[in-house]
Amino acid sequence: MKLLFVPGASCGRKTWMLQTPYFEGSEALALPGHPEGETRSSVDGYTDWLREYILKQGYQDIVLVGHSMGGAVAQTYAIRYGAELKGLVLIGTGARLRIRPDLLKAVEAMVTNEAAFIAYLEERHQNTVPEAKQAIIDERREIGAAVLFNDLSACDRFDVMAEIQNITVPTLVIGGAGDQLAPVKYAHYLTDNIKGARELVVPASGHWVLTEKPQVVNEAIADFIKTLG
User: Fold this and answer.
1) Would you say 24 and 225 are in contact if contact means Cβ atoms under 8 Å apart?
2) Packing angle, helices 43-57 and 69-81, rounded to 10
3) What CA–CA distance (Å, rounded) separates 149 from 106?
4) Per-residue DSSP letters for 41-86?
5) Which end of the chain has the smaller Cβ count within 10 Å, N or C?
6) CA–CA separation, 121 and 145 (whole Å)
7) What is the mean pLDDT of residues 134-156?
C-alpha cells in the first residue's frame, strides 16, 4: 500500500513532515510550482499532473491523503480514477472551496508585500506544533505569495458537489472543529455524500489540524488503513 500525501495551496512536502516519518514508505508530494516547475491554474490541472506522476512511478494500491486544495485534487482523482485507489483521506477540505473575495484581494496584494505575506503565514500557523512551525513557514515563503494567489483562485473555482457521490473508494474525512476556511459542515457534507465514509472532527484544532494535532490525525489514518486490508 502506498500513501501519497498531497499538500494544500502554496504548500510543499514539509506540510507533511509530521506524517511521513510515522508511515513507513509514504511519500509527500510537491505539486508543480511548489516551488519547482510551473503551477497549474486549476484543480483539474494539478490532478492531471498527479495522474501522470503516479503512472510514471508505477504506484499501485494507492491511498491518497489530501489537505485543503490537496483534498480537492484527491477528490477529483477519486472521481476520475477511483478504481486505482485503495483508500482516500480528506483533511480540511470540501466538495466546493469558495474563497472569500476579501481574502483573495489581500493575498493578491501580498505578491508585492513580503511583510504582509509573512504575517499571513505566521497567523495561519500560530497553532502548529513548535517542531514543525518554522520549517513549514520557511517552505511556504520560498514557494511564494504568487503561488498562493494562483492556488486560492483555483480553489475558488473548484466544485464537485454534483459528482461527489461518484466516489466509491473507502474514505476517511477529517476536520478541525475550529476550521474557518473549511468549516465542519464541509466535512459533514463529504461524509453524507460519499457512501460508507468515516468522519473524525478533532476538537481544539483548525484548518491545520494535521500540524496542530498530528498524533490524533496519524492514529486516525493508521486505524483507517487497517480496515483496507
Assistant:
1) no
2) 60
3) 9
4) SSHHHHHHHHHHHHHHHT--SEEEEEETHHHHHHHHHHHHHGGGEE
5) C
6) 10
7) 98
The one-letter amino acid code at 43 reads V
The answer to whether the CB of 2 falls within 8 A of the CB of 61 is yes
Q: Strands, DSSP E only, in the chain?
A: 2-6, 27-28, 62-67, 85-91, 171-176, 198-202
pLDDT at 213: 98
Model confidence over 166-188: pLDDT tens digits? 999 999 999 999 999 999 999 99
**Cα distances (Å, whole numbers) of residue 137 to 188, 205, 224:** 29, 18, 29
- Cα separation, 9 vs 218, whole angstroms: 21
Work out the end-to-end distance of the chain between its first and last CA atoms, rounded to an integer number of angstroms.
Answer: 9
DSSP-assigned beta bridge partners for residue 85: 62
Helix (H, G, I), strand (E, B) or coil at 181: coil
**Predicted pLDDT of residue 229:** 76
* CA dist., res. 184 & res. 200, Å (int): 10
Secondary structure class of 216 (helix, strand, coil):
helix
pLDDT of residue 175: 98
Strand order in the sheet with 62-67: 27-28, 2-6, 62-67, 85-91, 171-176, 198-202
Domains of the chain: 2-226 (3.40.50.1820)
